[in-house]
């Protein structure tokens, strides 16, 4: 069931996604990512954000991710992770009622569910599940 009222509707890794606004610190202009030689899997590098290094997600590490386009903005998540986004669509309100089960979506392990907006079911990213995926990738390494 959804308790989120506002969502960020964006494009990332070749698809449209939703992010709960409660999980966002802010959205900033994209800046060049400094690679980390030998860095953890799933992290493409870091950017300097508010005087600290912020790790930036490598969408290629997410199973089922498409080829990402050049990032226009960076969503800074509360768990201190930057998500490169190809564009922003808007900030819709979450509809009443439960989200759909994302079991057939290749991103199911990192989703909170599928949210019905208009006539489409869009994936809602769960930052905690995304971080769990990154930890699993690190332990496999």
The termini sit apart by: 35 Å
Which strand order do you get reading across the main beta sheet?
Answer: 2-1-8
CATH homolog superfamily: CheA-289, Domain 4
> What is the number of domains?
1
Radius of gyration (CA) equals 15 Å
Q: What is the CATH first-level class name?
A: Mainly Beta
Beta-strand content estimate: 35-45%
Number of helices: 1
Query: What share of residues is helical?
Result: under 10%
Structural class: mainly beta
Tell me about the largest β-sheet.
3 strands, antiparallel
Give unreliable regions as ranges: none
Q: What oligomeric state is this?
A: single chain
> How would you sum up the global shape?
globular
Per the CATH scheme, the topology name is OB fold (Dihydrolipoamide Acetyltransferase, E2P)
DSSP strand tally = 10
Query: Could you give the order of the helices and strands?
Result: EEEEEEEEEEH
Mean pLDDT across the residues is 92
CATH architecture annotation name = Beta Barrel
Description:
This protein has a single domain, classed as Beta Barrel (OB fold (Dihydrolipoamide Acetyltransferase, E2P)), CATH 2.40.50. It is about 10% helix and about 40% strand. The protein is built from 1 helix and 10 strands, in the order E-E-E-E-E-E-E-E-E-E-H. The protein is globular, with a radius of gyration of 15 Å.
């Amino acid at each position: 069931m959804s308790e989120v009222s506002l969502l960020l509707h964006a494009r990332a890794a070749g698809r449209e996604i939703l992010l709960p606004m409660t999980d966002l610190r802010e959205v900033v202009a994209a800046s060049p990512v400094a690679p980390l030689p030998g860095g953890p899997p799933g992290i493409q590098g870091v950017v300097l954000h508010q005087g600290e290094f912020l790790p930036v997600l490598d969408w290629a590490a997410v199973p089922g991710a498409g080829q990402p386009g050049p990032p226009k903005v960076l969503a800074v998540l509360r768990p201190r992770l930057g998500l490169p986004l190809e564009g922003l669509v808007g900030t819709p309100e979450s509809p009443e009622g439960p989200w759909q089960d994302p079991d057939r979506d290749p991103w199911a392990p990192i989703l909170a569910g599928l949210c019905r907006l208009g006539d489409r079911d869009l994936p809602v990213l769960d930052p905690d599940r995304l971080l769990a995926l990154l930890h699993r990738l690190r332990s496999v390494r």
